[in-house]
């Protein structure tokens, strides 16, 4: 990297380890990494808001087709049945599982629609000089709840499971859903809220003479600097604290509650199938074993990883991080952060089983001949997934470095 004059360097704090950095101007193909935790603290790449808005508009146009048109078509006992996303949600809510249906609605419909709509709103608001602050604050929180990629995989798993009972064909909504998932993935990759904040709400960076203890990191808009007289961020107007408020207590509560929820989620039946009036119950594990017995080993592995391994690994990692911070146990801090990032990324895939159940409910419903419904474990599994995601959101990674590290100043 070329040398820069000191006046060109901007001072910032790493949002992951709280290290005080001096960041030079970046080219489009450059990123700045924190030398202590190796987190990316600034991006040189930049997609214009015009390009993001065009993709968001295309996604919004595809949504009615992807959500209302049939995704799968089956022929069950001579009767043609169509499965759409809305049909699965309706069946879930109507059969007495409104909480589970609400979480599926949030991740598969509401969050993608609000995320794409919010980006398009930014484009409109910029032209009419409306405030962008509320929308930018919401968009970053919504990003982790957009799970169309998980839903698309759930569609494939459902297709493999349903072929044991009926003839299967793709529906008219399948291609729009695939294109929508592709567009939403592009939006999530290239949506950079930190750059949008800096572009539309630029603030002077702290000078090198500013006392380090007065430079705080705002997790809402990624501003590093001094709060105003009210203790709020001068850019997004949110309260700035040196650490997340009651981070340890809230994370402990979420993790312990998730452990309690996982016990009935794995022991009780998660699905109930009626074949000519005969009731057959399946737990998560028995359903996986049934897939293996039917020679669907790859699908069984996917369901096992998403429904059993991912929640278990996430809880174990979060417990290890909480114990190390709570009892000030020193072990590789960079590894701890990498583990946290890993479980934060994979945690969303636990929603796979709930999406599969929603699709199965819309397809397998022939009254007394063949019928499918949720078991009591579905609610507990839904609660466990939600709680583990909250635990990851509430955990402040800077606490890992607070155990033994002292504030340092580095240049990258």
From TrEMBL:
<feature type="transmembrane region" description="Helical">
    <location>
        <begin position="48"/>
        <end position="67"/>
    </location>
</feature>
<keyword id="KW-1133">Transmembrane helix</keyword>
<feature type="transmembrane region" description="Helical">
    <location>
        <begin position="369"/>
        <end position="392"/>
    </location>
</feature>
<keyword id="KW-0997">Cell inner membrane</keyword>
<feature type="transmembrane region" description="Helical">
    <location>
        <begin position="145"/>
        <end position="162"/>
    </location>
</feature>
<dbReference type="Pfam" id="PF04403">
    <property type="entry name" value="PqiA"/>
</dbReference>
<feature type="transmembrane region" description="Helical">
    <location>
        <begin position="339"/>
        <end position="363"/>
    </location>
</feature>
<dbReference type="InterPro" id="IPR051800">
    <property type="entry name" value="PqiA-PqiB_transport"/>
</dbReference>
<dbReference type="InterPro" id="IPR005219">
    <property type="entry name" value="PqiA-like_proteobact"/>
</dbReference>
<comment type="similarity">
    <text>Belongs to the PqiA family.</text>
</comment>
<dbReference type="GO" id="GO:0005886">
    <property type="term" value="C:plasma membrane"/>
</dbReference>
<keyword id="KW-1003">Cell membrane</keyword>
<feature type="transmembrane region" description="Helical">
    <location>
        <begin position="299"/>
        <end position="327"/>
    </location>
</feature>
<keyword id="KW-0812">Transmembrane</keyword>
<keyword id="KW-0472">Membrane</keyword>
<feature type="transmembrane region" description="Helical">
    <location>
        <begin position="99"/>
        <end position="124"/>
    </location>
</feature>
<dbReference type="InterPro" id="IPR007498">
    <property type="entry name" value="PqiA-like"/>
</dbReference>
<protein>
    <recommendedName>
        <fullName>Paraquat-inducible protein A</fullName>
    </recommendedName>
</protein>
<feature type="transmembrane region" description="Helical">
    <location>
        <begin position="251"/>
        <end position="275"/>
    </location>
</feature>
<feature type="transmembrane region" description="Helical">
    <location>
        <begin position="168"/>
        <end position="189"/>
    </location>
</feature>
């Amino acid at each position: 990297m070329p040398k820069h004059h000191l006046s060109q360097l901007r001072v910032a704090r790493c949002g992951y380890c709280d290290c005080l950095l001096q960041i030079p101007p970046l080219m489009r193909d450059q990123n700045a990494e924190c030398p202590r935790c190796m987190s990316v603290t600034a991006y040189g790449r930049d997609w214009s808001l015009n390009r993001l808005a065009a993709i968001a508009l295309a996604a919004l146009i595809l949504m009615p087709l992807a959500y209302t048109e049939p995704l799968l078509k089956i022929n069950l006992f001579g009767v043609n049945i169509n499965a759409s996303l809305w049909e699965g949600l309706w069946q879930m809510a109507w059969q007495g599982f409104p909480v589970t249906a609400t979480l599926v609605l949030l991740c598969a419909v509401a969050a993608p629609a609000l995320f794409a709509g919010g980006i398009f709103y930014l484009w409109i608001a910029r032209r009419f000089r409306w405030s962008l602050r509320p929308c930018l604050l919401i968009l970053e929180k919504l990003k982790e709840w957009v799970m169309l990629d998980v839903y698309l995989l759930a569609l494939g798993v459902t297709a493999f499971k349903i072929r044991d009972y009926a003839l299967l064909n793709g529906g008219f909504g399948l291609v729009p859903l695939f294109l929508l998932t592709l567009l939403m993935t592009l939006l999530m990759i290239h949506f950079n809220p930190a750059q949008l904040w800096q572009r539309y709400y630029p603030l002077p960076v702290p000078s090198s003479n500013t006392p380090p203890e007065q430079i705080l990191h705002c997790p809402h808009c990624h501003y590093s600097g001094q709060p105003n007289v009210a203790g709020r961020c001068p850019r997004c107007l949110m309260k700035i604290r040196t650490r997340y408020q009651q981070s340890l207590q809230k994370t402990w509560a979420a993790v312990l509650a998730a452990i309690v929820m996982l016990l009935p989620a794995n022991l009780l039946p998660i699905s109930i199938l009626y074949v000519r009036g005969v009731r057959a119950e399946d737990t998560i594990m028995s359903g996986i074993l049934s897939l293996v017995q039917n020679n669907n080993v790859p699908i069984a592995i996917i369901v096992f990883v998403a429904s059993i391994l991912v929640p278990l690994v996430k809880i174990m990692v979060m417990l290890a991080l909480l114990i190390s911070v709570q009892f000030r146990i020193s072990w590789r801090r960079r590894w701890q952060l990498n583990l946290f990032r890993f479980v934060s990324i994979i945690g969303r895939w636990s929603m796979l089983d709930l999406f599969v159940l929603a699709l199965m409910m819309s397809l397998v419903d022939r009254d007394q001949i063949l019928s499918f419904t949720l078991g009591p474990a579905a609610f507990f599994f839904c609660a466990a997934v939600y709680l583990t995601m909250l635990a990851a959101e509430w955990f402040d990674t800077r606490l890992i470095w607070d155990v033994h590290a002292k504030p340092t100043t580095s240049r990258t």
